[in-house]
Amino acid sequence: MKEALWQNEVVSIATEVNKNPKAAEELLELCADAALDGVSLVAVVVKTGEVVTALFNKIKVKTPSEKTFFEIFMTERCTQASSRALVNFMADVDGGCNLFELYNVDCSFDLMFLATLREYRKQNLGTLICKYSVEIARKVRDGFVVPINVADLGPKYSHLKKTTKPIEPYPKICQVLCTVKESQKIVEKLKFKVHLTVPLSLYVYDGKRFTERIGDEDAICQISALPLYES
């Protein structure tokens, strides 16, 4: 993720995560936390075992708490200004569109972080891994979750806590926050509906608008969703 996502993804550049190794490590912990849900995917080169594409998915359950998953993570685990800014951005955009209320559901499947190594891009891997993630999301209600233990993540993440309680309720929608045109095209192809479009020029980090650092004044992000079952 450090090479494939946070070095050239626009919000990572805007918040200077791409220049802050400690911030990138903290965001890897966010990925590790999501991996414990047992619904993330990787694409691997069969001959070498090299991971070339990864999609970290997070199951989100509606709770009475006023703080979202991202807000709690930012408060409790982000020590770097860059990582706090990136996660705060995600929380703020998420907060601008309450998909739980919009779809009248109690659980969603978030396609959270997608990355492909540069030399393997433009091979449809991003589309395929998103498509398979949607298929997995539909199977969660039948117990299709790959067991992941903290120990599987290595000693670096031994402090993480995993709930052993079965996932109840199960996801009724898929959701995604897209910050680049490539991912926006992918979810459009998969029939996601755009519910919120936000100009990145509205956000500022360390005195500069996001669009100043990324060099694109028209850059936007979008919140999109897809119902998993017929209503």
Write up this protein.
- One of its GO terms (molecular function) is N-acetyltransferase activity.
- It comes from Euphydryas editha (Edith's checkerspot).
- This is N-acetyltransferase domain-containing protein.
- With 231 residues, the chain is α+β, with helices and mostly antiparallel strands.
- It has one domain: Gcn5-related N-acetyltransferase (GNAT) (Aminopeptidase), CATH 3.40.630.30.
- It contains eight helices and eight strands.
- It has helices at residues 10-14, 21-35, 69-77, 81-95, 99-103, 125-139, 181-189, 210-214, and strands spanning 41-44, 51-61, 107-116, 173-178, 193-199, 204-205, 208-209, 220-227.
- The strands form two sheets. It has a six-stranded mixed sheet with strand order 1-2-3-4-8-5, with helices on both faces.
- Strand 6 and strand 7 (208-209) form a beta hairpin.
- Helix 2 (21-35) packs across helix 4 and helix 3 (69-77) runs antiparallel to helix 4 (81-95).
- The mean pLDDT is 89.
